[in-house]
Amino acid sequence: MTSERFGTFAVDPLSLGQYATLLGFICLITLNLYGPDRLLLKSLKFMGMAIAVWISIGTGSRSGWIAFPFLILLWLIFVHQIRQIKTLVPVLLGLGFLGFMVYETNAMVHERIGLAITEFMEYSHGYGHDTSTGLRMSMLKMAGLLFWEQPLAGYGDSHYPALSGIPSIAPFNTEALEFALIHNGVHNEIMQNALRSGVFGLASSLLMFIVPGVVFYRGTRSQIPSVRAAGLVGLCYIVAVFCFGLSTETFNLKYTISFYALMVSTLAAQVLRPQSI
Fold first, then answer.
1. Which residues of 124-155 are buried (b: 16+ CB within 10 A; e: fewer)?
2. Can you give the pLDDT at residue 223?
């Protein structure tokens, strides 16, 4: 690596980058949400977004970066009401160009994305199975195959069969893959629960995103400013955590699942409160 990734003893670079991204976009989404913010508040929100982007880039957390385009799209569509294709496309092209400039000028972004592309190309040509990207792709394939082997009961937390004994997995199985499966999980929130508890785990994982997502989406359509604000922040949170969960297990840590429960319950309470109050 050209530089050391941000992180602390208590918070690894992946979690730090993910939640910096989330909190930064909450600053952006709430900007002028109730009308023009005062200069001090507006400055603090811009500062929060800038610091969040700086931390996210410094962590080198690609699982956090995945959420950027989806959260930007949410910001454009739900906050700025930009929904016509002829208006949306130029804005997205401009933001895409800005992202390309960051890729070209920032060493951390260039290295991390370039490494992912290189590892993906290696994997697609049949080697590089034990790289970071290769392991994640193998784990998704392996998780899908294991799920179909035992879709109802699942395997619990560690009762997996020997991968080398399964013909469909044997071609891409490695010692690193077996170690990662047992000790680190499959790096995907939904597939991890599908393996752990079968179709019931799959359903519960999907509903954890879908149900609050629907509640918050309905909140964004409210004419009550406080309800709409809670809906926008909640939808931002659900979209972000879903994106993070594509390449990590987002609810395996106590503080992440506790934060999810707190955020969803408080924001949903504001969205679902009687509108006469």
1. eeeebbebebbbbbbbbbbbeebbeeeeeebb
2. 87
